Amino acid sequence: MFREDFVWGVASSAYQVEGTDAADGRGACVWDMFAADGRVFEHQNADTSCDHMHHYKEDIALMRHLGIRAYRFSLNWARILPEGTGRVNEKAIAMYRDMILTMKENGITPYLTLFHWEFPQALYERGGWQNPDVVQWFGEYAKVVAENFSDICEYFITINEPQCVVGLGHLSGVHAPGVKLPVAQTFLVAHHLLMAHGQAVINLRRYAVRPVKIGFAPTGGVAYPYTDRPEDIEAAKKVYFGFYNPIDNWTWNVSWFSDPVFLGHYPAEGLKKFAPYLPEITQEDMELIYQPLDFMGQNIYNGYYVRAGADGEPEFVDRAPGFPKTGSDWPVTPEAFYYGIKFLTERYPLPLYITENGMSCHDLVSSDGRVHDPNRITFLDSYIGAMQKAYDEGANVAGYFLWTFLDNFEWADGYKQRFGIVYVDFASQRRIVKDSAFWYQKIIETNGRMLTMNQTTKEILFLDPVCTHNIWGGTRLNREFGYPIEGDDIGECWGISAHPSGDGTVASGAYKGMKLSELWEKHPGLFGDTGMDRFPLLVKIIDAKDDLSIQVHPDDAYAKVHENGSLGKTECWFILDCKENATLVVGHNAKTKEELEQMIHEGRWKEFIREIPIKPGDFIQIDPGTVHAIKGGTLLLETQQSSDITYRVYDYDRLSNGKPRQLHIVQSIDVITVPAKSADNSVVHTEKKDDAIQQLIQCPYYTVYRIDVEHRVETWQDKPFALMSVVEGEGTLNGTHLKKGDHLILPDGYGKVELQGRMQIIASTI
Fold this sequence. Notes:
This protein is an alpha+beta fold. It is 28% helix and 26% strand. A hairpin with a 2-residue loop joins strand 33 (722-733) and strand 34. The longest helix has 25 residues, at 183-207. 49% of the residues are buried.
């Protein structure tokens, strides 16, 4: 969870929410002209929008009711200075002062952004951001802001998303002022923006009536690794701060806009790549840009996959078909949020505020008069959870501002997109609090404790299994179960395992990407807080194309002493398939320890071993000390203690890599039980039954069940946890699709289980 002083807020911008008033005295900005030219969706405009300028007292009171602690908002430059410089609009000063005081009266800390794209039209007609005088124009505006608001506001942000101002406004022309400048001119615009930022910092500090804290809020999509391999992480970081975009889309870049501000220099790679397009950049320019700051902001919404290619260079990876997207068609990528925070806080030495994050949904007012937006809740839960993960790992994150509080005018998209946690009926100006706002209220109240990642989830935990190559393995695990591993020697699928030799990975949901061992350690509540020092069970599917070695396992006491504290290995087998007249080795024929040693040393294997007949559906318990071997042609599911201790007694003199495999004669003789358990007690014959749950065994280490689903089976998960492996067919579990080869865990407290379809499941618990 987050520290007590973590800042939880919402964000907006002046032009998107305020609206206008015939008597407000504001000047026109470039967005007014852009909208007047019909370049906004459905020829919409922001003349009214949320009418926040007349409703801010109610809106801020609503923030207070919802527990919001901070409000990041912007001033409209053209409202305060109608011509951009010179005459100050005192009505605007009075309104914004009252707005800030209202925030403070409601216990909400103001975070004031000077420029969120409300560029005065009068200054645009004088050359706008291409005019070098813009640095002083913006400096004059910052002076007015400092003189009029620093007594009641402590936190200031100079510029929001310079990448968008340059790229969308001056390169592609899809945002105001809607021009398509030559590439070289866009670099001049970008340089002036950064110089203006520096001048604003100087003037804010110089003219403030008390010490203030100042930041800068760029943006950029996050390059994040396709896997957690170190080489993929490094490849993603290289792209994130690198220069891989084509020149006609160059502005979507992090380091070009952040390195000068936070590190004092443009990145060398960019200077080299962009050399033909750059304006003159002087030492004085860099000194102006690089001003002392108190924090950095970053707006993060989504990202894109990167991995290390075969040549070691980064390569981009396409998303899978059906990848989740928001209402604005942006991909949902909480992993990008995690890595973006990690990468930024590693590179730049200031506390980080997430100054924008959120999603657009196709929100509707339901028949009950409310707005239910579960997709937004899921989005925010995953993103804020990703932020907490980075935070827990040491990322210096100081606050989070959700975009946005009110549905508003979303720039060129007009009112098509709804990002707010409060619904706005733009015709009546009625506000309706969405479900997501109440959810966010709980997150703030608990300082993040109510995030799914901090709860014992009732979600099904699907595992990505670990498959192994074995000298005796075959192809059925790939052919019949669909496990994505190639080769003709795939012997084992460790379907549910937290053992170091094959630690499974959570495949989806709140804990996606976590190893089972990590989940067991960090979230013991999922497993009933058993107090055990390790996950106790291991479930395998074994495909024996050839005979396995004749072997034996120790018990707990022997393994603890002789195998570095390992568990012993009690196991059991459920036969999925086998040849006609198939057998297994279970037990031996020695009557005494002396006879046992003699048979082993003399290699009297046919005389020594005991084979028993088997058929599909048979169940065999293998206690420690039991000599055993799986014969070729057998496919089975094994449930066992979480141990990988095996003592080979005999391996048919087979070679592996040209050498005989190691035998463990001394240890085997130590642990083999003499005489062996009766063959009559070795096998339990089970039969398929319609819609039935059959207990196969209950021992001190596990209880195992066979579940046959022909139509519908209902049960209740009231154990610390339940393991399930689908070994045949398909169906659903509480509506979630299951198929052959799936391995899953139902956590503690999962409750009612409803299975439907045609499938066979082997389940176990402790």
